[in-house]
């Protein structure tokens, strides 16, 4: 996201309005959860690659209009290193595909809870790939987070008869998506040094749209009108939510906004119950609670150490991507 100049009339507002930032972030998380519900509904009848295409392609007009209104259209189309965007699109699209498959096999709250493993994986990868030092507090948080993941998986592990168990396959897909998204987060840290956030947002949707077309030979269908409407809505809602998250960082620091990601569990519980008549087992909620606790510990520790999220440029990794 382009930084707001200190000379502009709205600079102080853009930097000191945490209430607006929290509102934007919370609304965006709710919209992403609605989008996940739409994905869960449509992947029952539409191939996953086709759903990825609509999620990405239908978001492009929304992003282009947003960039034009902000006067950042030229910046959003300018890139210094196209290869970085291709790699980000490839890994991000893979993450989105795994996530969508998992959503079709698990309840919405279960899939949401398992996706919270992403920050834990990111911390591990930052230590392994970037050489970041993690000490006792954050190592403990990683251990607690991984324990929470195992607790959430315990119902499948306890009764697993074969790898054909749909709940286990769905869980592994969500965890694969979380792992891929953690690679994306590490990659974005490098991209942010030379690429504008506007370009990163735009080119991800573009590359994901193109890459999803390679799944055409695997049986795309002409969806019924109702399903087509849901698919288009999925992309539009995802695009608007993406913009809201990006905009939220103009008004509040990322370290303040990060805990609001976990409002998605509340939204997932409500939408899962009302739309799909789903309610997660207590063991899943307990495991999710441990993972959320671990992530909040990491957030607070990073704030204390001054390693604030998005310090150089606040970036947003779209849900499912």
Can you walk me through this structure?
The structure is a single chain. Helices cover 73% and strands 0% of the residues. The chain has one domain (16-305). The protein has 321 residues and is mainly α.
List the helices and strands and how they pair.
Layout: H1 11-15, H2 18-42, H3 48-57, H4 59-69, H5 73-77, H6 82-105, H7 108-115, H8 117-129, H9 136-159, H10 166-191, H11 197-212, H12 225-248, H13 254-257, H14 263-276, H15 282-305
Helix pairs in contact: 2-6, 2-12, 2-14, 3-6, 3-11, 3-12, 4-11, 4-12, 6-10, 6-11, 7-10, 7-14, 8-9, 8-10, 9-15
Question: Keywords for this structure?
Answer:
mainly alpha
Give the structure's gist in a few sentences:
The chain has 15 helices and no strands. By secondary structure, the chain is mostly helical.
Gap between N and C termini: 18 Å
Average pLDDT figure: 87
Q: What's the overall geometry?
A: globular
Number of domains: 1
Number of strands: 0
Rg estimate, integer Å: 19 Å
Secondary-structure element string: HHHHHHHHHHHHHHH
Number of helical segments? 15
SS content category: mainly alpha
